[in-house]
Amino acid sequence: MAAREIVPGVFAVGAIDWDRRIFDELIPLPDGTTYNSYLVRGSEKTALIDTVDPTKTAELMGNLDQLGVDAIDYIVSNHAEQDHSGSIPAMLDRFPGAELVTNQKCRDFLVDLLGIPQDRVTVIGDGDTLSLGDRTLEFIIAPWVHWPETMLTYLREDRVLFPCDLFGSHYATSSLYVPDEGVIYESAKRYYAEIMMPFRSSIKAHLAKLATRQIDVIAPSHGPVYDRPALITDAYRDWTGDAVKNMVVLPFVSMHGSTGAMVDHFVDALMQRGIQVQPFNLTKTDTGDLAKALVDAATVVIGSPTVIFGPHPQVVYAAYLANLLRPKTRYATVIGSYGWGGKTVDTVKDMLGRLKVEFLEPVYVRGYPKEEDFAALDRLADEIRKKHEEAGIVPS
Ligand code: FEO
Questions:
Q1: Can you tell me which atom of ligand 1 is nearest the CA of 150?
Q2: Fold of 245-389
Q3: Which part of the chain has CATH 3.40.50.360?
Q4: 185-194: buried (b, 16+ CB within 10 Å) or exposed (e) per residue?
Q5: pLDDT at position 25, please?
Q6: Measuring from each residue's beta carbon to the nearest atom of ligand 1, which residues come in under 6 Å?
Q7: pTM of the full predicted structure?
């Protein structure tokens, strides 16, 4: 990525990773990603805010060369995860006079993960500031976005927020600013679902704290920069808020067509009752799409056959993931088919223990579904409609 100026004296100097297709060996990245690092030049001091993934250190170095940077006074670390901190050791070597500036928890992580010498670190606290001469960096401690040590940095005079992972998107683009609001909204929603959703309550509190500041530009550490911050702050208020949509998310697997026939019937039954439904065949779906759908759906219905004595392993994976991501779903249940017994329903229910949901009556049948089984699915669709209506989430 070529170095580019965001506002006079503030440059994006990070790297684009066009080809990366998985993150943390867990999160699919259909659109690649970027590791954004920012250089802020004050009248007296220069600061680098976050670095890049260690695989891209040379690109960061090249961008600093391009700008003729021969000294950095401060390297600010908002977050210790290696895609932002991994190049800090190389930066400290290249700029021996630079101080690493971060909070206490982040310092401990950086020492443990990267072997950073403690005597290079200056520890700051919430609300502390760092003067660069005519510019001031203010630090906002914001734990759990998405690690316990995370913080945000605010450039007061230019009203630029550097929130690291918060508000990011895994989206590789040559555009400095958001190139298409619809596309980036969807990408940021997927990113929120996969990374931030388990920390919804913490993020809500951070949003309230940020509301007291005027922010003209949000420069996250993944994806493009927001020159219209309301795009992402409004979206985060919506996603972290308590409202859910009139929607059923239906992850399922079918081995021999019985659960599949139930899913097909149930999708139609929900549609006939004015309920949006998103089925995800887990043998084909991208788990990021599933996570994104979970952000604001009122109900999750899991469709599974029984394999030997329990749920299909793909269903186990999806249920485990949903339990980790902890969406604000209100209702859940299980549909599917078994051959000779097993504990599929109880196992899936136990796996969703972290979700604050009301479990509805499952429809779990022996063999291929019969007329009475399809009728039971219709009753389940009626019940979901009723629950959504009672909760005020059915559009009139
Ligand atoms: Fe982009 Fe939590 O690292």
A1: 2
A2: Rossmann fold (3.40.50)
A3: 245-389
A4: bebbbbbbbb
A5: 86
A6: 79, 81, 83-84, 146, 165, 221-222
A7: 0.96
